[in-house]
């Protein structure tokens, strides 16, 4: 059998464009000799369509898209396409499905059986689970069909992938599908990228192939959709678990391969830094493009966070579509101003300097007496520091309004975690590019960017980080060292450890208490933050749903 893995980048809700791209890719696969073509999960609607599935007009449009799709599949090829199935008269979606299209009709259907409802997933909000495995015959080969999560309840995979873990569900669709002789197991996926999945996901599919001694074809969505990033890396695994064909990461590809001989093996990602950077570039590009933006704007402080964000934006959209704006005040060092300008030159992006000290002076003149009348300043008061950040936010939003450019925020995960950021100031924007990148990893990514040439000024990497909102200010005046802070955040947020476990790991109790207090008291800020691209096991955002008004503290 010659099969094709259609690794495509759909846009949620853009049904006409999605169907056209599926048919174009299917025709290409057929021209290259494929008799079986497979898309990713929900390729017709894009994943995840969320509450569009509650709109009767959307469901009716999906049905019309199905008609066009079935009519357009070329002869000689069987297309397995991910989509939804409505629920009869009620007009609500019933199943997350795969339609098997051949010879101008739908000849079979597979329905997703395991509906995830953890982290970023809410599938049981919209779908009913399927109740049986689907099998089809293509060229005399029995092909078993599964959809994404259906493969994630197989027996525990090898340690180092996820390690031994209990099954998450009471049924195992893979084992059910392979209870009879099978020549190929297919999995249609929209499996979001995270750094832990970089090695864990292929290890899991390889383990399934070895355990059941059957080839496994994994077809994954690629592209960015809001906060979610999809890395593609669709692959064919042999019965021995070896990768026999693999599509590239982070780009569309029609991969055609032979069931026995395999096919093209795209180079895999070499490091966490490469994977994270390419994911952020793709996510920024797709977020801007799918939301209708050609240009972006961001504030350049001369520091490492804005420098990394600018490099990502330049690689995502082209430097001519990026505007960096320096917004100096009396507290801005000369080095920061020259570092911002130097960065723009090195990246080739457009650059403007808009001094805001005059605006800040007007605030001091008119606002400070009123504030003093209301309440005397206490030690640690940041009201006037935050005025500067909010002036910067207002200026950048004005530029965004005038130019039509998307404003990117530049805060990292460490800052967002402990609330070291200003609402309606540096948090202003439409996309938080590095909000799931811990500060220590920001440094690693910056050095990776500079692996061939100094694109980010070395001074931005080497100097101590500072918000420059008061004289001689440094981040470490207000926060623990970033390596310690990031370790506490990793254990508390990503691993779910409690205070006692974190202290037992060797971190000073006072530091742990301080960090946990800051995390838990900053939820209201994060609820108002721009959507951020997800890289880690647990990001702040759609997959972490903490109440704001609550009394529990760890």
Structure description:
The chain has about 550 residues and is an alpha/beta fold. It has 2 domains: about 1-260, Nitrilase/N-carbamoyl-D-aminoacid amidohydrolase (4-Layer Sandwich); about 275-475, Rossmann fold (3-Layer(aba) Sandwich). Helix content is about 35%, strand content about 20%. The chain has 16 helices and 20 strands. The chain has helices spanning about 15-30, 55-70, 175, 195-210, 270-290, 305-315, 335-345, 355-375, 385-405, 415-420, 440-450, 460, 480-495, 500-505, 510-520, 525; strands at about 1-5, 35-40, 80-85, 95-100, 105-110, 135-140, 140-145, 185-190, 215-220, 220-225, 230, 235, 245, 255-260, 260-265, 295-300, 320-325, 350-355, 405-410, 430. The strands form 4 sheets. Strands 5-4-3-2-1-14-15 form a 7-stranded mixed beta sheet, covered by helices on one side. A 6-stranded mixed beta sheet has the order 6-7-8-9-12-13. A 5-stranded parallel beta sheet has the order 18-17-16-19-20, sandwiched between helices. Strand 10 and strand 11 (about 230) form a beta hairpin. The longest helix has 21 residues, at about 385-405. It is elongated, with a radius of gyration of 25 Å. Mean pLDDT is about 90; it is low at about 155-165.
């Amino acid at each position: 059998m010659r099969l094709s893995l259609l690794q495509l980048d759909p846009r949620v809700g853009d049904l006409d464009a999605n169907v056209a791209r599926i048919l174009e890719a299917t025709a290409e696969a057929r021209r290259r000799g494929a008799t079986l073509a497979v898309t990713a999960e929900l390729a017709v609607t894009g994943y995840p369509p969320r509450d569009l599935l509650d709109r009767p007009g959307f469901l009716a449009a999906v049905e019309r898209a199905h008609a066009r799709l079935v009519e357009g599949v070329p002869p000689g090829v069987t297309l397995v396409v991910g989509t939804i199935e409505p629920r009869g008269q009620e007009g609500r979606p019933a199943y997350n499905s795969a339609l098997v299209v051949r010879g101008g009709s739908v000849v079979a259907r597979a329905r997703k059986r395991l509906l995830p409802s953890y982290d970023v997933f809410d599938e049981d909000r919209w779908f009913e689970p399927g109740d049986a495995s689907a099998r089809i015959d293509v060229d005399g080969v029995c092909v078993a069909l599964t959809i994404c999560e259906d493969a994630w309840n197989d027996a525990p995979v090898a340690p180092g992938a996820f390690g031994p873990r209990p099954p998450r569900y009471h049924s195992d669709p893979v084992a059910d599908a392979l209870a009879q002789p099978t020549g190929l197991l297919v999995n249609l996926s929209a499996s979001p990228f995270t750094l832990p999945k970089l090695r864990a996901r292929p290890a899991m599919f390889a383990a399934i192939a070895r355990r059941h001694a059957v080839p496994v074809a994994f077809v994954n969505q690629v592209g960015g959709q809001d906060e979610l990033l999809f890395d593609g890396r669709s692959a064919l695994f042999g019965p021995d678990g070896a990768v026999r064909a693999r599509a590239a990461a982070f780009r569309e590809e029609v991969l055609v391969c032979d069931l026995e001989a395999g096919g093209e093996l795209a180079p895999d990602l070499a490091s966490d830094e490469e994977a994270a950077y390419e994911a952020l570039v793709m996510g920024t590009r797709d977020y801007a493009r799918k939301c209708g933006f050609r240009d972006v704007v961001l504030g350049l402080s001369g520091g490492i966070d804005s420098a990394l964000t600018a490099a990502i934006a330049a690689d995502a959209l082209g430097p001519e579509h990026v505007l960096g704006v320096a917004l100096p005040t009396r507290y801005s060092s000369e080095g920061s101003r020259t570092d911002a300008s130097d960065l723009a030159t090195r990246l080739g992006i457009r650059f403007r300097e808009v001094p805001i000290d005059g605006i800040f002076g007007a605030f001091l003149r008119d606002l400070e007496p009123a504030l003093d009348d209301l309440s005397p300043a206490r030690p640690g008061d940041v009201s006037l520091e935050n005025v500067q950040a909010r002036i910067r936010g207002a200026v950048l939003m004005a530029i965004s309004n005038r130019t039509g450019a998307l404003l990117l925020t530049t805060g990292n995960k460490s800052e967002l975690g402990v609330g070291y950021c200003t609402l309606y100031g540096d948090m202003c924007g439409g996309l938080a590019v590095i909000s799931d990148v811990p500060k220590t990893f920001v440094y690693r990514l910056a050095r990776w960017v500079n692996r061939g040439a100094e694109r980010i000024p070395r001074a931005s990497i080497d100097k101590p980080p500072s918000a420059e909102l008061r004289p001689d200010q440094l981040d470490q005046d207000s926060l623990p060292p970033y390596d310690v802070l990031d370790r506490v955040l990793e254990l508390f947020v990503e691993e779910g450890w409690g205070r006692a476990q974190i202290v037992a790991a060797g971190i000073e109790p006072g530091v742990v208490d301080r960090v946990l207090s800051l995390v838990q008291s900053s939820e209201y800020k994060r609820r108002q933050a721009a959507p951020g691209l997800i890289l880690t096991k647990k990001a702040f955002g759609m997959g972490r749903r903490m109440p704001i008004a609550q009394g529990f503290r760890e």
